Amino acid sequence: MDARVPDVAQQLLLIERELRLLGLWASEPPPAEALASREPFCVDTLQFEEWLQWVFLPRMKTILEGDQSLPRVSGIHAMAEVVYCERSVGALLAALQGFDRLIANG
């Protein structure tokens, strides 16, 4: 098992927590066709926070629970900075940056 797994799991919980605190957590999933986008971050069909909740977090949970290899790179923080440039989401950005840092230190 990758020694980073507990820290990555904690970081994912922080990301979820921040989404909830910011009111960016949805109770209903988007339509299946929106989730099937082939674009990075599903930019053509989802809001970034929807992608985090319905694509990124479940995918990472599957990776962790299946003891699969963690990604080798992550640029989620950079994308979030662009998306949220006019919003006050500092703790979410910090949580995403923490995730990127853990992945980069692999």
The best one-word shape is: globular
Rg (CA only): 13 Å
How many helix segments?
A: 5
Q: What are the segments in which pLDDT stays under 50 over at least 5 consecutive residues?
A: none
Helix content range: 55-70%
Judged by helices, strands and strand pairing, the structural class is mainly alpha
Fraction of residues in β-strands: under 5%
Oligomer: single chain
Tally of DSSP β-strands: 0
- Main sheet summary: none
Average pLDDT reading = 96
| Total domain units | 1
Order of helices and strands: HHHHH
Give the terminus-to-terminus CA distance: 12 Å
Q: What's the helix and strand layout?
A:
Blueprint: H1 5-21, H2 32-35, H3 48-65, H4 76-83, H5 90-104
Q: What attributes does this structure have?
A:
single chain, 106 residues, mainly alpha, 5 helices, globular
